[in-house]
Design a protein that fits this description.
It contains seven helices and nine strands, in the order E-E-H-E-E-H-H-H-H-E-E-H-E-E-E-H. 47% of the residues are buried.
C-alpha cells in the first residue's frame, strides 16, 4: 500500500482460498494495531464490474452465448443514463468482448434481458447474503458485498460450479496427535450447468488475456488464468478477483471513509497485486 499512497489509497484487503473454500491466507487491512476492522469479512463495498460475472452467468443461463451480439450504444432506464468507463461506444459487440472490456451498456442490456429478480436469486444461490438493490443499477455492481463472499463466488467457478462455503479450520488435533475435528469437503452439487460454467470461464479468461484484466496475466506455466476487474463510481473501490491452478484470490483497495482514490481501477493496482501474489506462490 505504501507504493500506492500517492494515489490516495489508505487500505486494502486480500482473501486467498482453495477451490473448496479453505482460507489459505487473509489480510483484513494495513495495520491490525491501528485498526482491528477486518475489511475482508466485515466491510461491505460496491464491487463494480466484478459483479458482472453474476450478471453474465444469469444471461448464459437464460440462453445467451459468448458469441451473441449486443448493442454498445447509449441507454436510458427511467431517467438513469449509465455510461461506459471511457465515455465512448463501439456499436455491435459480442458478449465476450463486452465482458472482457467491461462495457457497461451491454451489462445493463443483459440484465434487462434476464431480469433483476433472477440476478438477485442467482447471487443468493452462489452464497451472497448481503442485501442487493432491486433496480437496474445492480448490473453495474452497486450492491454492497464483502470481499470474502464475492471471492467465494469465483471459487465456485473454480470448483466445477459447485457451491463453496468459506472456512478457516480444516482439522483440529490435540497434543497427542488425536484428531478431534476434521472438516469434510462438502459434496454440493453444481449450481450451474457445465455449459454455463465453460462459457463464463471463457469470458473470464478473455478478460485476462485481452481485456481489462491484462495486468493479471501469468506465464504459460499457470494452466488457465481467469479473473474480473471491478471499479466503483468515482474510484471509491478497486477490485480484482480471479483464480489459477488451485488458488482463488480476491483483492480490494480503497479508503474506509469512501474517499475517492486517484484513478485507481481494478485493472490497475489490484490486478498487478494479484499477479505479483500468484507469482510468489511459485517461489
Amino acid at each position: 500500500l505504501i507504493k500506492y499512497k500517492e494515489f490516495s489509497v489508505s487500505e486494502g484487503a486480500i482473501v486467498v482460498m482453495s477451490p473448496h473454500g479453505s482460507i489459505r491466507a487473509m489480510v483484513g487491512g494495513r495495520d491490525y494495531k491501528s485498526s482491528k476492522f477486518n475489511r475482508s469479512t466485515q466491510a461491505l463495498r460496491q464491487p463494480g464490474s466484478a459483479f458482472k460475472t453474476i450478471v453474465y452467468i444469469a444471461g448464459l443461463e437464460a440462453g445467451l452465448s459468448p458469441d451473441d451480439i449486443f448493442s454498445d450504444t447509449p441507454i436510458e432506464i427511467s431517467g438513469w443514463k449509465p455510461q461506459n468507463y471511457n465515455g465512448s461506444y463501439k456499436g455491435p459487440v459480442t458478449l465476450r468482448q463486452a465482458f472482457a472490456e467491461s462495457i457497461n451498456s451491454v451489462a445493463v442490456r443483459v440484465a434487462q434481458y434476464v431480469g433483476i429478480k433472477d440476478i438477485i436469486n442467482l447471487a443468493k444461490r452462489f452464497g451472497i447474503s448481503s442485501s442487493l438493490p432491486s433496480d437496474a443499477s445492480l448490473s453495474l455492481g452497486t450492491g454492497e458485498v464483502s470481499l470474502i463472499e464475492l471471492t467465494a463466488v469465483y471459487a465456485s467457478l473454480s470448483n466445477d460450479g459447485s457451491l463453496v462455503f468459506p472456512h478457516g479450520i480444516t482439522r483440529i488435533d490435540n497434543r497427542g496427535g488425536e484428531t478431534l475435528y476434521s472438516r469434510k469437503i462438502s459434496g454440493t452439487k453444481p449450481i450451474i450447468s457445465n455449459k454455463t460454467l465453460l462459457d463464463i470461464r471463457d469470458l473470464l479468461a478473455t478478460t485476462v488475456s485481452q481485456g481489462t484484466g491484462s495486468n493479471a496475466a501469468l506465464p504459460p506455466s499457470f494452466h488457465g488464468v481467469y479473473g474480473k476487474t471491478g471499479t466503483s463510481q468515482n474510484f471509491r473501490d478497486a477490485w480484482f478477483i480471479g483464480f489459477a491452478d488451485k488458488l482463488v484470490v480476491g483483492i480490494w483497495l480503497g479508503n474506509d471513509n469512501e474517499e475517492p482514490m486517484k484513478s485507481i481501477s481494478g485493472g490497475g493496482a489490484p490486478a498487478m497485486i494479484w499477479r505479483d501474489f500468484m507469482l510468489r506462490t511459485r517461489d
